[in-house]
Amino acid sequence: PILYSYFRSSCSWRVRIALALKGISYDLVPVNLIKDGGQQFSAEFKALNPMQQVPALQIDGITLSQSLAIINYLEETHPNPRLLPQDPKKRAQVRMIADHIASGIQPLQNLSVLKQMGEKKMEWAQHCITSGFQALEQILQHTAGRYCVGDEVSMADLCLVPQVANAERYKVDMRPYPTITRINKALLELEAFKISHPSRQPDTPLELRA
């Protein structure tokens, strides 16, 4: 497999965690979203992913984009360890939380949106993450065990950790979100989350390396 990724992309990080958890080795091709006006806009990368976004994963003779679609494919082709619970209610809760982050928070504070916000980009990012986290904190109080849904790592957790990193990057006050904070801390102790961390990627700038 070949993963096209950017060290700081939260969507790429989700996929790196999934690959690490499932023990799938891959080659990483960095796509710098800032350098050269954004390498994702090159003709070469557009041919690979017409949406001009990372991640993209070439695997089993196909090219997939969209992090949750990629994770779902990995789940179906490499079922262990399981990232979607067998119980239908828990599985629905995992998908709900993953979608809440992947559709309801992250796209609103994505690089392409923040570029349009000009001087108000920090304020906008904080607003989007805060409103999303207020809802997420409430949801997790009903679903969480050690992790987002019960005591097993799931696709929801793969979305949570990168989004908390975004929140910290945009200086969101995390004190109102004790459940999010507790789960995030527990997940960051796991090896798959450590090795996939933005501070430990081949394209991480020296000053941001762990």
TrEMBL record:
Alphabetical list of Gene3D superfamilies matching this protein = 1.20.1050.10, Glutaredoxin
| Source species, domain of life | Eukaryota
Q: Name one GO molecular function term.
A: glutathione transferase activity
Tell me the keywords, alphabetical order: Cytoplasm, Isomerase, Phenylalanine catabolism, Transferase, Tyrosine catabolism
For this protein, the Enzyme Commission number is: 2.5.1.18, 5.2.1.2
Q: Does the keyword Transferase apply?
A: yes
InterPro entries xref list: Glutathione-S-Trfase_C-like (IPR010987), Glutathione-S-Trfase_C_sf (IPR036282), Glutathione_S-Trfase (IPR040079), Glutathione_S-Trfase_N (IPR004045), GST_C (IPR004046), GST_Zeta (IPR005955), GST_Zeta_C (IPR034330), GST_Zeta_N (IPR034333)
Q: Where is the GST N-terminal domain?
A: 1-82
The entry sums up its family as follows: Belongs to the GST superfamily. Zeta family.
Query: What name goes with this protein?
Result: Maleylacetoacetate isomerase
Recorded source organism is: Illadopsis cleaveri (blackcap illadopsis)
